[in-house]
Amino acid sequence: MISMNRFLLLLVAIFSATALPSVAAEGHDHLPASAEVLFELGWFKFTNSTLMMLLVSVVLIVVAQLATRKISLVPTPLQNFVEWILESLINFLSSVLGEALAKRTFWFFGTLFIMILFANWMGLIPGVGTVGFFNSGPGADPHDTFTPLLRGANADLNMTSAMAVTFALLWFYWAITETSVKDFFAHIFAPKGKFQGLMLVGMIIIFLFVGLIEVASIAFRPVALMFRLYGNVYAGENMLESIMNLVPSDFLKWLAALPFYFLELLVGLIQALVFTLLCAVFLRLICEHEHDDEHAH
Amino acid sequence: MTLPAFILASAAEPATGNAVDKIVKTFGLHWSLFISQLVAFLVVCFLLKKFAYGPVMEMLEQRKQRIADGEAKLVEIERQLKESEAQKDALLEKANADAKRLITEAKTSATSLAEQKAMEAVAQAQVILNKAQEAARAERAAMAAELKQEFGRLVVATTSQVTGKELTAADQQRINEEAVSSLN
Predict the structure, then answer these.
(1) Is the CB of A100 inside 8 Å of chain B's CB atoms?
(2) What is the ipTM, given to two decimal places?
(3) Nearest to B63 among A73, A158, A163 (CB)
(4) Which parts of chain A have pLDDT scores under 70?
(5) Phi and psi (nearest 5°) for A128?
(6) Domain spans in chain A, listed from the N-terminal domain onward
(7) Integer Rg of chain A from CA
């Protein structure tokens, strides 16, 4: 009972730290759409979302290292947890991509899901977006004088675009290596089905046009992926900050936002799933053609 | 706005006034930030592959193999157990049949032995009886002979006393024979 009371007190204390958005809100009249630069070294800019990304990376690598340092057939609880996550993921991806392709691409899809999920959830830790410093001086923006030290890593379009562009490049590589250059282009432009004579000519023209639409669709996919993830995470942070600012008392702001934290936990998971699943489905669609042909033979 | 347009716009200085540039500026897309996030993501991919996916997948594979081996062994053990049970049942059945046969044989041999022994006993009894009868007959004959001799002597003695004369051996012989013959 005593430990339960202590836990509740700790919970209140932690969430009271979210009272800091009032300070942040005084520092800016809206949540900036882009990550804020903490320092610059020549051309290199270091933003608060880059710092968050580094923290998430360190946490993931440390957990992975701790879980697998003394890996054994009889697992420790941490090893068991990591095994559970990875096994669930590979099974999920195998159901979409097939076992062979899922194993081949797991290093990317696994990291994609885990990275997005933990970046989203760590962005909800009280203190992210609220602990920072005030800018002063002649160059300071009067509408945005507060710079938080940490910002949700996926609330930065640079991060989501890095993942989307990586996927787009890997998509080409995997599509061509899983099929062939000829099959790759045939999948996009060649008529589906068996036609002869004039019908064939007509179909070639139609499927050429369909292929051009497909090319446009392929080019738009990464942009849609990056904006979808960014938009959801940024909107979530914006909503939390707005809800907290509705409460006048600094020490009760966390209470109004509490239900939305659970919503954001769910959104974080769903967005990680959506991004990973869409990428997997896009890859499956381009690799499906060759596999179907193989089955047909 | 396609991916190539987006990348080109983010690499360019966002000073011009077109829509892509405005978006790039609004969302803070910058090639150095993009590359730093890209590198960080790829480094995490590499490290997780090295520290997590590789060892964990290998361990899962090992465990799967071990479970499959265990299952195969279990099936083998079950098969052997069934075989053992079948063998045991067959042995028990054979032992039961043998036991029944032995009991039947024992019963049969016991019956015949008993009959044989009974017959032997009967035969022996018959022999004993015959011998007893023969002995009794012999004894009776001996007694009869002795009795005849005694009777003869008595007749001779009585005759000698009644007549008051000394009988000769020939008289004694004749009287004795006549007396004995009168008994037959």
Answers:
(1) no
(2) 0.82
(3) A73
(4) 1-30, 137-144, 289-297
(5) -75, 120
(6) 2-296
(7) 24
